[in-house]
Amino acid sequence: MKQQKLQEIYPTSSIHAFPTVDTDYLSIAVAHGFLWIPQKNLSPTEKKLLQAIAITNPATIPTAGKERPWYAALFSDTSAPADEGAFRLIQIKCHALEKNDLAALHEEMSTILPHTVDLFFLSESYGIIVESFSEDALTTEELEGLFLALDSDFNSYTRLFSGAFHSFEANFTQLLFEEEQLFLYLLEHDTQTKSFDMGTAIIPFFAIHDVTKSYLMRTLFAEWFDAELEQIICTLWQTQGNISSAAKELFMHRNTLQYKVDKFQQRSNTNLKKMDDLFLCYLLVLSCELLAT
């Protein structure tokens, strides 16, 4: 049965990239993930029918995952295990790997991503990397190159979503849920692209979803902008990202504007020369009054 039809029948269900060990839900494998259907909404007959096509065995999720430092912060609405700093979530989706290959891939990624603070697989094909902020954080393009090399070593094909860096004070359970939805949407609607980020996700996803209801977007707005930066972003958008033209409009020396833009890009891990990233920032500013409420 198609995912869309199942979601129409069970409107309280939700799509995720991994099966659940929560006995309150039934996990149904669909095209790019798993549909979680609340057990309380199912009659005995429905349960029997769905169990024929469901993945209910929790063995696919390592029980050790619950012992990981960030597990509770990502799945149980608890505080992040840190008292300072910013962190991003990198989701990876690959062909199903054998247990030994997963262990080897886990070790390899821990080595080549030195700022990783936690890393675990929730199924044979889906994993999450938690990375702390650093000035030399890899761009999405650099991450893609890294995973191309890993794919060659492990005879696999990995697709990834690089999330934004967020303050340790943020609700990472909600952030993961929304970034996961972005990733799943892109996996379904873009079969060619290997690596995604907020910039590439923003246009297709929020063309059909209400940006003002997004905790993720509200968090980005609060963490990234002040009044001066809002004005800078609007002017850059109007001048199509041209620093010299924007500086004239702002009555600011070009080098001063460039310095402010560079500092913002370093902090947000964006590249305002890329129209996707510039549009993401412009959308945040454009929706600022609604996002701030």
Automatic annotation (TrEMBL):
InterPro entries: CdaR-like_regulators, Homeodomain-like_sf, PucR_C-HTH_dom. It holds the Pfam family HTH_30. Gene3D superfamilies: Homeodomain-like (1.10.10.60). It comes from the Bacteria. Residues 234-283 form the PucR C-terminal helix-turn-helix domain. This is PucR family transcriptional regulator. It comes from Tetragenococcus koreensis.
